[in-house]
Amino acid sequence: MSGTRQSQGAQALRIGTRASALALWQARHVESLIRALPGSPPVELVPITTTGDMRADVPLWAVRGRAFFTKEIDRALLEGRIDIAVHSLKDLPTAMEPGLALAAVLTREDARDALISRAGATLSQLPRGARIGTSSLRRRAFLARARSDLTLLELRGNVPTRLERLDQDGYDAIVLAAAGLKRLGLDHRITQHLSPEEFPPAVSQGAIGVCTRADDKRSSEWLQPLDDFPTRLATTAERALLERIEGGCQVPLGALATATSTGIHLHAAVCALDGSQLLRASGDAEPTEAGAAALGSRLAEELIAKGAGRLIAAERAVQGRAEAP
């Protein structure tokens, strides 16, 4: 460890995070990784309330704007009130705030979606009309594709709250990210891991992103050893895909990139909200950040050529009706 890093050790690194159980787990995980480095500085957590936390009464797809779970934290970072921002990478907009940098992408946890059912039934075993809770347009679309007979209901709240509502509020099943359940020690609740081929996860699901100010060399130096290159490559491809296809709104898009022995493979799909149409694209690239980004953009263009724009326009119309007074 360099003498410079040792001499800076007394100045605390302030980590901004949401206050949910999962967000705090992620922030504490980053804290533990930093503390394990030789000569590491003190670390303190700074909980910050975000728009997504305050608007738990409505579906996020019906709320105008973006960056619901990151904006306030990133603002604190830009203003110097914190030194590091820890995010679920799937929540981080593809167009980051000017002046910020994605300094580290941690090793990815299980990227799949998970079904948790009250009676232990798998997706195919659920009865007709079963009530399924999810707050995600993507999950609703792919559930409708797999089982058009299901009743899809909104479900907001943190992971423990959603599990409580499953147990108490009459849902037959809910869908959550497997990664969050595992990190909170709740993976014993999982009834079924949903196939990423049939239920492609959200872009960057299962990955943790750690941001700093672009000119903050000290914080970046401490975070560099935490960066996992295969995960960065995979999420670079997925985020490039989303950036090109998103068009400024949430879309029923799923994607998963994985490292291979010779490069990186990306599979993506866009699904109509009612499950009636499904567009797929897949491809491979060399294992470089530039190659990953180009792969994501190329598959986005392929999906757009196949008609993804029409499906996104239909989704926008749904959002517009929800937002209308």
Descriptive terms for the model:
single chain; alpha/beta; D-Maltodextrin-Binding Protein, domain 2; Double Stranded RNA Binding Domain; 3 domains; five-stranded mixed sheet; 21% strand; disordered N terminus
What does this 3D model show about the protein?
- The model is unreliable at 1-9 and 61-65 (pLDDT under 50).
- The protein has helices spanning 3-7, 21-35, 51-54, 71-78, 137-146, 159-168, 178-183, 217-223, 229-246, 289-306, 308-323; strands spanning 13-17, 43-47, 84-88, 100-105, 113-117, 131-133, 151-153, 173-177, 192-193, 208-213, 253-259, 264-271, 278-285.
- By secondary structure, the protein is α/β, with parallel strands linked by helices.
Any chance you could write out the topology, listing elements then pairs?
Elements lengths: L2 H5 L5 E5 L3 H15 L7 E5 L3 H4 L16 H8 L5 E5 L11 E6 L7 E5 L13 E3 L3 H10 L4 E3 L5 H10 L4 E5 H6 L8 E2 L14 E6 L3 H7 L5 H18 L6 E7 L4 E8 L6 E8 L3 H18 L1 H16 L2
Parallel strand pairs: 1-2, 1-3, 6-7, 6-8
Antiparallel strand pairs: 3-10, 4-10, 5-8, 5-9, 11-12, 12-13
